[in-house]
Amino acid sequence: TVDLAVDPFGDLNGVSEDASNPGQISLGGWAIDPNTTGPIQVHVYVNGQWGGAFTADATRTDVGSAFPGYGDNHGFSDTVAANAASNTVCAYGINQGPGGNVPLGCKTVNVAVDPFGSLDGVSVDGATGKINVGGWAIDPNAGSGAIDVHLYVNGQFKGPLTANGDRPDIGTAFGYGPNHGYSGQVDNAGTGQNTVCAYGINQPGSAGGNVLLGCRVVNVPTGNPFGSLDGVSVDGATGKINVGGWAIDPNAGSGAIDVHFYVNGQFKGPLIADGDRPDIGAAFGYGPNHGFSGKVDAAAFGNNTVCAYGINQPGSPGGNVLLGCKAVSVTINPFGSLDGVSLDSGTGKINVSGWALDLDAGMSPINVDIYVNDVKAGSVTADIARPDIAAAFGYGPNHGFSGQVNDAGTGDNKVCVYGINVGNGGDFLLGCKVIAVT
User: Which of 198, 277, 292, 339 could form a disulfide with 119 if both were Cys (CB 3.0 to 4.6 A apart)?
Assistant: First the structure.
C-alpha cells in the first residue's frame, strides 16, 4: 500500500503594509493541490478574523519549475484589510478531492492604524454664507464603523461631522464598507479667503492618532450691496410715492438689509429688503427674501426724483450703494366713495350719500357733483361729520356728504358722483350706482 500526499501545499511568501492603501496589507504566495493541475482557492485570516478568499492562478514560473507537471499558474497576490496595529496573517490552501485544507503559513506585519481619508471639496452656500464641506474618512481600528471629522476654518474649530454617509466608491477601494462619507456646513471665519481643514479623529482607546485629511481655500464673497429700484408710482389717494425693488449685501448672505430713500435729495425714510422675490433667489443664490416695497412721502407736487440706496451690512467691508433713481410726477386727485343711492318715496327724488376728500384742501370740505344718466343733476358739499374717515386718513371728520337730486325719469337711473378738485390734480369719479325709478 502506498500513501500519496493529496493535501494542498504551498507557501505564504510574504506580507507587508500596502503603502498606497492605508490600513491594507499586501500578501503573496503560491498553492498547489496534487489532485488537480488547475488553480485552487486560498483563504486568508487576519488576527483570526476572516480576511477573504483568493484564487491561486497567477503565473509563478519558479513554482512551475520546482514542481513539474502542475504548470506555472499557481501564484496568488492581493490585499486584505488590517484590523490592528500588529497583524498576524495566515493563509490556507483549500483542498480539492481527497485530503484536507492545509495552512500555507502565517506572518506578522505592523500597519499604521491612524485614520485616513480626504477633504474632497469646499464651497460657499450663497444663501447662508456658510461653507459646504464634503469628503470621507476611515479608521482601520473602527472597521466599518463611522468616525468623527473635526472642521477648522482659519484655525478656529467650527464643529464635528460624522463620516457615516454612503460612499460606495470608498467601500470598493478600501474594503471597510461604504458608509464613510461626510458632508455638511460650517460657519465661515469672515469674508475673504477662508482656509478649511478637516481632521479624522482617531478611534478612542485604540492605536494611532488624529490625522489631517486635507485643507482647502475658499473665498467667502465680500463687497458692496447691489440691487435695483424697479419702479415708482404715485398713490393718487394719498400723494405718497409707491416704491419697489430688491437689494442684497453679500456680507449679509440671505439676511435682509435696509434701503434708504431720498426724494429730491431729502431723506424720506428706510424700508427693509425682506420681501419674497424668488426670481432674485434663483438669479443670485442668496435666497429669495430680498425684495422691498412700500410708500415714501413726496417732496413736492410736480416732478419728484426718487433715489434708493442699499445700506451696507454694519461692521462689514464695503459701503452704501445707489440702487437707482427714477422720476415721477406727483398729482393728488380727490378721493372718496359713493356709499349709498336710494329713492325717497315721499318726494320721488334720489338720495345720495358718501364721503370725499382732497389732500390739497386739508381739513376743509370739497364740493361733490352729482350726475344722473350722465347729466349733472346737482352739487353738495362734503362737510358732514364722518369720524371713521378722520380715523382712517387723519384730515379731520367733516368730509361726509348727503343730498337729493331729481331722477331722469322712470326706469334705470345711473347715478355718478365726482369729487371736485382743489389745487393740484383734477376732478375724480368717486363711484356710480344704478337705481330703478317706477
Answer: 198
Cβ atoms of 87 and 47 closer than 8 Å: yes
For residue 112, give every residue at least 6 positions away whose Cβ sits within 8 Å of its Cβ, in sequence order, or none.
17, 22, 23, 85, 208
Nearby residues of 289 by Cβ (< 8 Å), 6 or more positions away: 254, 256, 274, 275, 276, 277, 281
CB 128 within 8 A of CB 254: yes
Cβ-contact 280, 246 below 8 angstroms: yes
Hey, what's the cell of 281?
A: 433667489
Sheet with 131-138, strands from edge to edge, namely: 116-124, 131-138, 179-186, 165-166
Per-residue buried b or exposed e for 337-352, using 16+ beta carbons within 10 Å of the residue's own CB: ebbebebeeeeebbbb
- Which residues make beta-bridge pairs with 244? 231, 293
Written as one letter, the residue type at 96 is Q
At 75-109, the pLDDT tens digits run 999 999 887 778 999 999 999 989 999 999 999 99
